[in-house]
Design goal:
Nucleoside Triphosphate Pyrophosphohydrolase, about 15% helix, alpha+beta, 7-stranded mixed β-sheet
Length: about 190
Amino acid sequence: MKPADLPGAALIASAPTAPSARWKPNVTVAAVVERDGRFLLVEEDTSDGLLLNNPAGHLDPGESPLQAVVRETLEETARQFTPQGFLGMFMSRFRRTRTGEDTTYLRLAFCGTVGEADAGRQLDEGIVGTVWLTYDEIRAQPERLRSPLVLECIDAYLAGRRYPLDVMNVHPSLYQEPGAVQPMPAALA
């Protein structure tokens, strides 16, 4: 496939010149958890109101995507997440309703299972609670979804998309203290 044949190629060709600062997307992880035909979602209090999302959050410095999705799921649902497959990489761009901020997300989504909720664990700030909804219940309320990626990740899961977890490679330097990380070779800098 030629670059001009890729989805969105016409939009890219007509896009305004990029700003002088290097652009970076927000890198996030998400968990798709299905049990008895229902999907685990979180209700999140956002600047745009109470919205539904997969258990998800930002990748933190010094952690792998797998570590991040386990941590985020625990923080947002009080449940231990066991990843079983990689669903893929998803991207979305939108303008926030209240602030007008233009935001792009690169989401790494995983599927897996969760244990029972730890009733004594406090949920992450902004998380009001968790719900188990059927696919039809989720599709029936698109205005309540935090982003289109919520449904896209579930659709990938339902389509049977699964990649092995070892498709993610993490170099040991990720876990080193900042001063211990080797400088980038001049040829790559």
